[in-house]
Amino acid sequence: MTDRKVPDAGEEDFAAMFAASERQAGRAQRPRFAIGDRVRGTIVSIGQEVAVLELAGGGEGTLETLELRDASGQLTVKTGDALDARVVALGEKQGFVTLRRGAVVGTGGGKAALAEAATTGLPIEGVITGVNKGGFEVDVGGVRAFCPLSQLELRPVDDPPSYVGRRLTFRVTRYEEDRRGTNLVLSRRALLEEEARGRAEETRGKVVVGAVLPGVVTAIKDFGAFVDVGGIEGLLPASEISFDRSTRPQDVLTVGQPVSVQVMRVEKRDDPKRPEQVSFSLKALERDPWQDAVAQFPAGTTVRGQVTRTESFGAFVQLAPGVEGLIHISELGAQKHLRHARDAVKPGDPLDVAVLAIEPDKRRISLGLAGREAGVDDEGRAAAARASGGGQGGKGGMGTLGDLLKGKLPGR
Fold first, then answer.
1. Helical spans, DSSP H, in 52-188
2. Domains and CATH numbers, the chain
C-alpha cells in the first residue's frame, strides 16, 4: 500500500488563498460598464438574430444582427471587423453587455424611446422645422424639441434658415415630463465631437511633421483655413496656401473641399478636447517658383510686374506668382527725393522693370525701371538696390546718392 501525504494546515491555507486570488483576478480583469458608455469591439460571430463582439479592454457584448444589415438585408460587416456601439443594458455577469448602434427614435418614435435615448445617450433623428432667437425647433417623432444654435455644428452656423427641413441626428441632453408637457433639448455638436474623437485616435499617430495627409476644409477665415485630417483639425495659414502673396483663402478654397496638406508643426496642449495644435501647408507640396527664377528672369530681362507693397526704401514688385523683386526708391524718384515709395507707386500698379541682379539662394532680385535713361550704369543701379538692405527682408538703410555713385568710382 502506497503512503499518501496528508497536506498540513499551512499547505491548505496556501491553496485556498491561491484559488481566491485567481477568482479575484478573474473578476478584476472584467471591465465595468455603465449604460450609455460608447465602446469599440471586434465581431467574433454573427448569428441570425445576434452578433457577438469582443470589446476592447475586455468584456463581451451582443448586438442585434439586424443593425448590421443594409436596406436590402445584406450584411455590411464580417467576422473580424471592428465597430463602435453604445451600451444599452448590463448583463447578469460583470463585463457582459447589450449594445446598440443605430438611432432609437425616428419619425414614429414614442416617449419611451425618448427616455431610453436620454438614459443611454443613443442618437435620435429629427427634422428641423424652424429657427428662433436661441436656436432651432426640431420635430422628433411628433414631439417638439429645441437645439441651441451653438449645439448644431462644431463651428458657428452662418446661415441658420438653410437648415430648415433637414433631417439630422441628435443627442438628448435634457428630457423632462411635467404638467406643462415635454421639455426636450438636443445637441448635434455632442455627436460630432464624439465622432471626431474616435477618428482622431486612429489619425493621431499619422500627424507628424512632414507627413502628407488627405483632409477636408471645414472653415475659411481671412487669416487662413481650418482643415480636418480625420478627427484632428489644424490651421492652414494664408501664407501657406500659395507662393503667391496676393492669394486670399476664399479665392482658392471652399468649405467641404478635399485637399492634401503637409504637416508643418505639431504642438502639444493641455486641453483634453484638443490635445495638439497643428499647422498645415499647401504650398509645401508645390514646386518652388524660385527654382525656375534664374532661367526665367536672368539679369537684363525686361518684364511687366505688379507692385505688391511699398516701403520707405522701395517697392516690391511681383514678377511671377511667388517671385518678387525690389526696386529701390532711388529708381522711383526720377532724380527727385522721395520720403516713401508710396509717393511714386501703390500696390496693384503695373510697372515695367528691368532685372539688374538675381540671387536665388537669398531669394532676392534687384530691379530698375525699364528703359530708364540716367547717368548711372547698371552696376551702380544694382548697388543702389542692394543698399536697401537686402530685398525681401527689407532690413538696412534707405540707400543714398553716395551709395548710388559708388558703382561708378574706380576701385570700388
1. 111-120
2. 38-100 (2.40.50.140), 111-187 (2.40.50.140), 207-285 (2.40.50.140), 289-406 (2.40.50.140)
